Amino acid sequence: MKVALDIDGVVADFVSPFVQILQARSSGAIDLESVTDPNFTNYPFLSSELIRQCVMEVSDDPNFWRGLAPLPTLVEWQCLDALSRAERLIFVTHRYERDHYSIHDVTCDWLREHGVSKPVVYFTQSAKSALVDKLGVKLFVDDRHENCLDVAENTEATVLMPHRSYNQSFEHPKVTRIQDLHALTAYLG
Predict the structure, then answer these.
(1) Do residues 128 and 145 touch, judged by C-beta distance below 8 A?
(2) Which of 1, 6, 41, 170 has its CA 20 to 30 A from that of 146?
(3) Closest by alpha carbon to 23, among 10, 7, 34, 12?
C-alpha cells in the first residue's frame, strides 16, 4: 500500500514559526491555541496581503524550512523510515519551488535528518487529489481540511487528518481524525 503524507502540519511544525513571523510583521499577538483557521482569516489585524507577503518571505528562505521542528515521535519516524525503505511512502506538499535554491533538496535533507532514509517528495500548487490518484496512493494524511476534502471526494484513498487546533470544525464522512502518526499502523496491516 502506498502512503502519502503532507509535510507541514503533519511531520513538520509550520504554524508555530509562521505565527512568530506574522506577529513580527503586524501589530497583534496570536495565541497558538487560538489558531482555528490555517489561513488566519479570523485575525482582523492580518490583511490577506500581509499573510501573502509572509508566505513569500518564508518561501524565499531555505533556513526557515531547515529550522522547522519535527512533530512525530522517534518511533513514528522509524515507522515512516520503514515505509520509505520499502518504497511505500511519498510526501506531497504545496511548498513553493524557487529559482534561487532547491526546496526539494532542503525538504529531502530535512526528512533524512529526522530519519526518513529515502524521501520521495512531490511539489504541487494544484489539487493534491490529481497526484494522489496518479501515483496510486491508498492512504493519505494531511492537516488541511481543503486537501482532505479534495482527496476524499476525488480519489479512492483512505484519508486521515491529524488533530490540530486549526482543523477542529471540519468533519467529513470519508475523513478520519487521528491523534498522531502512530495511528497509521492500524491502516498498514
Answers:
(1) no
(2) 1
(3) 34
**Separation of alpha carbons 43 and 142, rounded Å:** 24
Q: What is the DSSP letter of 153?
A: H
Cell numbers standing for residue 131: 497526484
Cα–Cα distance measured from residue 115 to residue 59, given in angstroms and rounded to the nearest whole number: 24
The mean pLDDT of 79-88, rounded to a whole number, is 98
Record the cell numbers describing residue 159, joined without a space.
484519508
24 with 45, same domain: the answer is yes
Q: Which CATH number characterizes residue 90's domain?
A: 3.40.50.1000
Backbone dihedral angles phi then psi of residue 15, each to the nearest 5 degrees: -65, -45
Average pLDDT estimate for 30-43: 86
Range of the domain at 59: 15-64
Q: List the beta bridge partners of residue 123.
A: 93
Task: Kindly state the cell numbers that stand for 109.
Answer: 535533507
Question: Any idea what the Cα angle at residue 6 is, between residues 51 and 97, rounded to 5°?
Answer: 60
Alpha helices in the chain (DSSP H): 15-25, 48-59, 62-66, 74-85, 103-113, 128-134, 145-154, 184-188
Whether residues 26 and 44 share a domain: the answer is: yes
Residue 93 has pLDDT above 80, yes or no: yes
* Per-residue model confidence as pLDDT tens digits over 106-149: 999 999 999 999 999 999 999 999 999 999 999 999 999 999 99
